[in-house]
UniProtKB/TrEMBL annotation:
Keywords, alphabetical: Amino-acid transport, ATP-binding, Cell membrane, Membrane, Nucleotide-binding, Transport
Family named by the database record: Belongs to the ABC transporter superfamily.
Protein name: ABC transporter ATP-binding protein
Residue span(s) of domain ABC transporter: 9-242
SUPFAM superfamilies attached to this UniProt entry: P-loop containing nucleoside triphosphate hydrolases
Tree of life domain: Bacteria
Database matches in Gene3D superfamilies: P-loop containing nucleotide triphosphate hydrolases (3.40.50.300)
GO biological process: L-amino acid transport
A GO molecular-function descriptor: branched-chain amino acid transmembrane transporter activity
Length: 244
């Protein structure tokens, strides 16, 4: 796969094995700088494995992952995160016994205590996700599922990131909270962030996505512009078995 200088993240021929299972079969993917790329596909297509492979949580057995021109395939997960990549896993990874404030402080690498956190950025996060401010001193484990999802994203953006990777941000959320989440990602994109989102909600994908890649059986079987896929019902049906 040819990559352009405008691509912040590129995967070339990536294979991933988990134990005896061969999950990714030569994945090629390009995530352009400053765009929001949607990764779609049926359950079991390999989307989460792909995100975990990018983050070094699972090691690619073949192929390469490049970020900002650097080969990050052999790096450990903490090294990858230090390149200014944030990852929100599907299970959100919230520290239930810590307060909302403490969860954010852990992710704010430039702050040792709460007073050192970027106040203007916190106010922006509170405007995006009012529940984060409302439950600031509450244990994160007491939040609802939707509030935990907001906290997980807030934690990932508590400092500016070059790349934000989120696994199923709209899963299980009420429509009003989905609108909140869409607004948050749109604002991040306008601010110059690059985003890679795995999503099952096709309306969410249509409203936000610039580019789209569709996975099936551990491969990317379609890549293009989200708007074109959104207008092609036959292609949606053949790739995903459903329509927008």
């Amino acid at each position: 796969m040819s990559s352009s200088n405008d691509d912040l993240l590129t995967l070339n021929g990536v294979h991933t094995h988990i134990g005896a299972y061969h999950i990714l079969h030569g994945v090629d993917l390009a995530v352009p700088r400053g765009e929001l790329t949607m990764l779609l596909g049926r359950n079991g297509a390999g989307k989460t494995t792909l995100l975990r492979t990018i983050m070094g949580l699972w090691r690619a057995s073949q192929g390469s992952v490049r970020f900002a021109g650097q080969d990050i395939t052999p790096l450990a997960t903490p090294q990858i995160a230090r390149l200014n990549i944030a990852y929100v896993p599907e299970n959100m990874g919230i520290f239930a016994d810590l307060t909302v404030q403490e969860n954010l402080l852990l992710a704010a690498r430039s702050a040792r205590h709460a007073a050192q956190m970027d106040e203007a950025r916190l106010q922006w996060i509170f405007q995006l996700f009012p529940a984060v401010e409302k439950f600031w001193r509450h244990p994160a484990g007491k939040l609802s599922g939707g509030q935990k999802q907001m906290l997980a994203v807030a934690r990932a953006i508590v400092e500016p990131r070059d790349l934000l990777i989120v696994d199923e941000p709209s899963k299980g959320l009420a429509p009003a909270i989905i609108d909140n989440m869409i607004d948050a990602f749109a604002q991040l994109k306008r601010g110059g962030a690059t985003l890679l989102l795995v999503e099952q909600n096709l309306d969410f994908a249509r409203r936000l996505g610039d580019g789209v890649a569709v996975m099936d059986n551990g491969r990317v079987v379609h890549a293009g512009r989200m708007a074109a896929l959104a207008q092609d019902a036959a292609l949606q049906q053949s790739l995903l078995g459903l329509s927008l």
